[in-house]
Amino acid sequence: MAVPPAARYPLADGFLMGASTSAHQTEGNNISSDLWALENTPDSVLPERSGDAADSFHRWPEDMDLLSELGFNAYRFSIEWARIEPEEGRVSRAAIAHYRAMVLGARERGLEPVITLHHFTSPRWFSRRGGWLAEDSAQRFAAYARTAVEILGGDVRYVATINEPNMVALVHAVRRRASRSGGGAGGVAFDPSTVEPDQQVTEALIRAHRAAARALREADPDYLVGWTVANQVYQPEPGAEEVARAHALSREDVFLHAARGDDWIGVQAYTRHRIGVNGPLPVPDGAEATLTGWEFYPQALGQAVQHTRQVVGPDVPILVTENGIATADDERRIAYTEQALAGLAAALQDGADVRGYLHWSALDNYEWGSYRPTFGLIAVDPHTFARTPKPSAHWLGALARNGYLPTSTAAADGNPSVHTLV
Question: Do the bridges between strand 16-20 and strand 354-360 make them parallel or antiparallel, or are there none, so unpaired?
Fold first, then answer.
């Protein structure tokens, strides 16, 4: 059954439709990174180690082939600083060649490469010398960005400096709190809505972002440089408006303010956080929850786009660089994504300058301590690494190939309206 024209929002030429991954979560054996060290400490609280991950370090051509064949025209992936500079000042020529081949491979397959320089993991040496709080962290990160130019060449337009800096600052605060309380500085489960980000780390990340952006633009003024923010979609209960506004300022909006002079800003939205007069509230009783424990709330995407547009201003284009759901039920993935895309279409109709949608994630992968939350459009066998596109991959790929978003809200009752689209 064809989708009725009223249920379609046609996309502009050049609109990016694809999926995202990160190096540590998919490549495997990132042994020079700080997170690998954390995973493999005897007292680590992380329940699982990344290990071979999805073996994408070797199987990236297959991943890109699948995305292209499904109908997508973009792929966001990260390059791994710990592989490129495994020891301070020593650059791996093999790693540069590897990632350069990935950039060219994406182009050859008709995929726009959207490159992230830092996706949560750093080289061990960088963390040992103080990480982002080291006096020269911005200069070190800018030097890495200059090295990355050899990988990007003239074949990359969109470059993200740092993925979700607000989460980086939050994790640092949690680890510091755990260490001071005697709980160790290992991986810590936390609710980001209840933790105040480390202000020093926040300021250091903004300096590093700006230093790297300058380095990239000096190398090639055609690079479009931005960063991506984890949008929390803070919703105040009656009487809690000021509480929610204050709650959002240090956890999200300060990072959006820092993007006002950028070439674009990445929106990454999954769910909402309700705020009462005394602070964050739990997921509502009876609400559907995902494998991460988050509320099933696809409206978050449209609301995050509108909030970002309001804070950053109308002159900074938006890329949706992550949006998705952790579920073992692919029917719910389609239902969630259809509603999320309907919200995105509404934001576009309202005048939001959105240049693309990149689903999280292309593959089922390592979700920072566990393989249980499956976000992928493509399933990965943990033993053979065989890739199997899910029905959601074919559904979303068909939207990309045909160049429109659904605007129907029929999925609100769990019955996606465009299941039969081919």
Answer: parallel
